[in-house]
Structure formats: C-alpha cells, structure tokens
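cache lookup: miss for this entity combination. No prior model stored, computing from scratch. Input as submitted by user K.M.:
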Amino acid sequence: MRRENAEPRRSPHRLRALIPGLGHLALGHTGRGVRLMLFSVATIFLVVWRWDRFIGAFSTPFLDRWLASIFLILMLAGVIWYSLRDVGRIQQSAGEERRGKSPWAVAMRRFRENRLAVYSIYIIILFYALAILAPILTPYDPAAIPDVMANRYLPPSGDHLFGTDEFGRDLFSRALYGARVSLSIGLLAMIIAKTIGTLYGSVAAYFGGTVDNVLMRIVDVWIAFPTFYLMLMLVGVFEANIVVLVLILGLTAWPGTARFIRGEILSLKNQAFTESARAIGLPAHLIIVRHLIPSALSPVLVTAALAVAGMIGAEAGLSYLGLGIRPPTPSWGNMVAAGKDNLLNAWWVAFFPGGLLTLTLISFSLLADGLRDALDPKALMQKYV
Amino acid sequence: MLKYIIKRLLLSVPLVLGIVTATFFIARLAPGDPMDMYLEPQRQRQVDPEVIELMRKRYGLDQPIHVQYVTWIKNVARGDFGESFRHRRPVRDIVAEAVPYTLQLTILALLLDALFGISLGIISAVKQYTKLDKTLTVGSLIVYAIPSFWLALMLIMLFSVNLGWFPTSQTRSMNYEDLTMIGKFLDRMWHLALPVFVLGIAGAAGTARYMRNRLLEVLNEEYIVAARARGFRERTVIVKHALRNALIPIVTIYGMSLPFLLGGATIIETIFAWPGMGRLTVAAVGGRDYPIIMATTTIAALLTVFGNLLADVTYAAVDPRVSYDAPRKR
C-alpha cells in the first residue's frame, strides 16, 4: 500500500510542519507554504505589536475584547492545525492529486477555478476578521473626541489612515467598528430570513392542500410590498436599534426564500427517497428537516450570499437616511451620511466607509456568482467526472 | 383574452384586500396609536391634552380599532388616504403632486436602462466567452452591486462639486421662471442628468445580465441551428430569429417595474432633493406622518400586483405559445 511507503518519511516532515508552512516548503508546495508562513507571521506580529491590548482584554469585562483576543489565539491554533493536517494529507497521497468525485468536491474544484470568486471570499474573510479584531487593531477609540479644533477634518495620513471627521474622531477606527455593526447585521438578518423562509416553504410544500394554500396566500401579500418600502414602514413604527433592525430586515426578506423552497420541495416530495422515508414511518418533521431541506439547500446557498449583500445594503441605505443605526454608533451607512454635506472640503469622510461598503457588496455578489456557477447541477457533471 | 384579464383581475381582489389589511395592522403594531408616535413623549408634554384629544377625534383615532379598520378599507376603496398629520392636507393631493416628478425621473431612467441593458446584453451574448463578454459580465455585476447612494455622492462630488457640470440637487435653477419653454426643458434635463444616470445604470446592469442569458438560451434552440443551416447570414439569424424570442421575457421585466415607475426611488430622490414619491415616503417615515406612510406603502404594493398582472397579460399577448384559456402552469 501507498501508505506504508510514505510511513518512513512521515515523522520528520510532521515535526517541521509545526512551524506552519515549513512542511509544505520541504515537500515542494511553495505557494501554499509561503502563504501559510506569511499568515502565521502576520498573526504573531499582531500579538506582539498589540501585546498590551491582547493580554489586557482578559482583565476587562468587555465581551468584544475577549472575543478579539480569543480569535487571535484561534487563528494561530487554526493555522498550525491546518498545516499539520494538510502536510499529512499530501504525504498520504504521495504526490498523487486526489480528486474527489462527490458533488461537493466537484463543486469546490469548480469554485476554486473562478479566481474572482476566490478573491472575493478572501476579501469577505478579511473584512470579518478586521471587524472581530477591531478592539486590537484600531489606533484610536472610535468614540473619543479629542481637541476638536486641532483634529477636525484632517485629511488621510499615516496617523489617520482614513482622515478624521467633524468631531476629530479617527475614521479608520470608526470604519472598523462600523464594519462590526454592518457586517454582523447583514449576516444575522440573512440567517433569520433564510431560516424562516426555508421552514415556512417546506412546511407549505410538504403538507400541501389547505395548509399550503393559506400559507402561500400570506406570502403573496407579503411579497407584493416592495422590500425597501416595507422596511421603511417598519422602521417608522419601531424605534430602530441594532436588534430591532436585524429583526426588521430578517422578517421582511423571508417570503422569497419560502416561495423558492416550496417549489424545490414540491418536486422532491414525490421522489423515491421521500416515499421510502415515509414508508419506514419517519415523522413528517424529520422527513422535512433530514431529507427534504438538505436536498433543496444548495441553491439557497447562492441566494444566501446575495441576501447578505442585500441586507448590508439595506441597512446602509436606512442608516444613510437617518432611519437605521443612529450616531454615535458607527455604521457604514451613517458614516457616509455624515460626510455628505462636506464633499468639497472633506471628501474622505464619505469616501472610505462607502468604499468599504461597496467592496463588501461587490465581493458578496461575485461570491454568489461563483457559487451559482460551481453548484449548477446541469454543468456539474460534464467537465469534471 | 378578455376572459383571461377579467379572471386575473378577480383573482387579485383578495390580494389587494390582504395588502390594505396588512398595511393597517403593521401601522398599528406600535404601542399606543399613531398620534402617540407622532407626538413623541417629550413633545407630548408640551401640548395641551385637550388639543391632543381633538386631534385624535379629527383623525378618527378615538374610534375602536375595528371601526377604524372598516373606515380605512372604505376610504382606500374610494382613493381617500386621509389627511397628513404634518401638512394638514389630504394625502391624495400631496401624492398627486409628487407623482409627476417621480414619473419624469423613472421614465427616463427606464429608457436608459432599456437602451444600455438590452444592447449590452445582446453584444455580450453574441460575443460569448470573449474578453469583451467577460468584461461586460463582471462589469455589470460590479455596477449592480455598488450602493446607489454612494455612487450618487461620488458622482456629485466629481461632476457637481469639483467640475461644476451638473447641479448638486433640486429640480430647477433659480432663474427657471424667466426661461423660455425650451430653456425650461433643458434646465429640467440638466437637473435630471445625474439622478437618471445613477438609477438607469444600475437597472441597465441587471437588464444586461438578464438579456444575455435569455439570448444565449434562445441561441441554443434547434430552430437557430436550422436557420444557420439554411444559410442565413449570422446577422439575420440573430436579429430576426433569436432576438425576437429573447425579447419576450424582457417585456415581463418591464411590466414588473410599475412599482418603481410610480413609487420612485427612495434614496436617490432624497439625495438629489427630488420631490417625488420616494422622498415623500422617507420624509414621512422620519416625521412619523402615518397617513402618508400608509398611503405610499399601499400604493407601492398595489402597483406590484398590477405590474405582475400587466406583465402576464402582455406576455400572453406577445408570445403566441402562451395560451390564456388553458390553466396557467406555475
């Protein structure tokens, strides 16, 4: 067996792989090795550079600082674990490229070939990491107002990467804290919308008849409202803070998913695997959750990426209009709004937060596009199997 | 055909009723009643309680909720949306003033959308997998993803503030009244340029992608192969055989833009201080002017219903394959 041949060479490389990337370099996987090394060096640099804040976080009562420090530790542990596992895998397959043939493996390969989509996923991960690490990274307190007269409207420079705003607050720090608000609202609202939509749609489709009829008529009414109008109306009714806003966004956006999932499940529910599950007496809720939903889920993945972009965009739009997240809590939307009246003298106030927002939305769209191509079942089995 | 239209109209009656009901109850989800929300606690203390009671009476808020609901339905059926808290005028009049402005903006934006979207989509599909196609496809995806308010601000910064080519906002210049007819028209166009561009280009990006996919689908059909085999020029094949069929679903898309046409664009209208439906809604939400919020939301939702209806009917009229007497397949 191949494995026996690999056995003698195994231990020295494994040891070397404890320093992330070194094992890969020794095995000739230069690109991956260098990337792993750079990543771990950057992480260690961050820990050393911000040692006070890294360690200090554990003596504060603030959850977000704890999270940031724990996230750093996890990043280090993760890169070591990954490089160990990957070196082991490379040795086991002894140079032969393993080509999985499951639909997921094929989809993964197709996705990796789409360079734009891969870059987008890097950008998205980077932005989420920056958001989590904000308490460690930010050079200034995002809310601190220093000597206003001396510090207001400073253009971008080494001290203030994105410049300062009308109160002399550092915009880079605010943009990172704004990322926390905007990115987490987008993700949470998407999860709420997709969960409700999936459950609702599958219940309607599985039970059919009157249940289906009643449930889908409700969806018809809900879907007739243009989403942004509905959000505006709800924002007008409720005082918007972060939690309320997440709920409003999530609860307005689910009917599309419900209608889509219903269609998928309707076509699945009379197939043999569902009938055999019914025949062995599986209760309805288990058939739905274990068999029907997983089969219908991959197109939802595509729309999920788009939905995050939609939610982040909607939150930014509402906050821009002054109806979403309100200052002093920074969100990308209200930061752009803060700069809108001073485009001539202080272009950077509106430019940078909006630029980050734009980059995020574009990345999610490209990601969704890549996922759609990779998961397209029609194209899936042609080229690769 | 007439039978089909009447049937669809009847089917949308419960939907319309549902929309009107939903709007009413969403507006009542908040604690208290709309007057409590309009007069926030701090302001409420300064107002004489008797005055508040009088205002309640004037807007019918002193009635039990089911009476209010029935009144609301009756009034909406007559096209009466009550009176604005803030403007103290019938909502119908305020909306009637906003609609023409919105139409100017949205009609031009849709024209730009169709012009660029359809032509770029066709180019992209005909040159499939070339560099040009890839650039257009990725480019349209990116343009579609850019948040409109940021794009608008950046364009204002560049073309209005720095270069001074276009006005930053408003619908007319200071000297508008002194201009001739042609001058007035040009002045309006000048003010429309930036908002129309922002709205139109985003729409065009979506249309281009859609057009490309539809045309590619049609180009794979057997009758296209047959047309090529018969020796028609490529141009004839694409324009006469493929395009005609590929354009049919596009008709549907434009039928569904009815809510946009009259409902306007909330954020862009606000940025450019354009006094249309969108800005009216945003201002009403900011000022908690419930009668206006309820009116514009209801109108937008009703337009969606009729937009879909319109799309289906035109689809049936344009595409001979759709038979409107047989039961429709979903």
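stored under new cache key. Chain A touches chain B through 47 residues (CB under 8 Å).
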